[in-house]
Design a protein that fits this description.
The chain is α/β, with parallel strands linked by helices. The protein is built from six helices and eight strands; from the N terminus they run E-H-E-H-H-E-H-E-H-E-H-E-E-E. It has a single domain, classed as Rossmann fold (3-Layer(aba) Sandwich). Helix content is 34%, strand content 19%.
């Protein structure tokens, strides 16, 4: 599983747009894409209802029938029980969840479940402030304190700059 701690407004929508494009170009296999952030889902609704405010390329795609922010296996998770159920998923997939610096929010539950296992990847796509969990992970932390316990870090930690 790839976990992407992402900012809810703007970043999550950009990721969905890019993932959809990568799927269409054959650069990314079709895997479940979980969006687990109520705020990101509300921002997604705003983006979808204001296509006219996007750039010309996006408007043309929309007119041609493209659902700009909809990868093929998109799973929206607004409810708590849906969020919890993601951690039972065993297949490959991508979890996009807030907060972007892993300082709070639902992403912490996914990190707690996935950090100990080397088959998972944590992908940061934004600035990580000094002292944030994200910065500690990028700095090579071998364990991370969450929910009052130390969680071992065996997952791959990656960073994409340029967002």
């Amino acid at each position: 599983m790839v976990i992407i701690p992402a900012f809810s407004v703007g970043r999550t929508q950009t990721l969905l747009f890019m993932i959809r494009e990568m799927e269409e170009q054959g650069l990314l296999p079709e895997v479940p894409i979980y969006v687990d952030s109520p705020m990101a889902l509300k921002a997604l609704e705003v983006h979808r209802s204001h296509i006219r405010d996007l750039n010309l390329s996006c408007r043309k795609l929309h007119i041609a029938g493209t659902q700009l922010f909809r990868p093929r296996k998109l799973k929206l998770c607004p409810k708590r029980d849906q969020s919890i159920a993601i951690n039972n998923a065993c297949e490959q997939g991508i979890i996009i969840s807030a907060s972007g610096m892993a300082t709070g929010g639902r992403v912490l539950h996914h990190l707690r479940e996935r950090l100990p296992y080397d088959k998972n990847t944590i992908l940061f796509v934004g600035y990580q402030a000094e002292g944030s969990r994200g910065r500690h992970l990028l700095g090579g932390a071998k364990e991370l304190k969450m929910f009052g316990e130390m969680i071992p870090v065996n997952a791959d930690i990656e960073y994409v700059s340029g967002f």
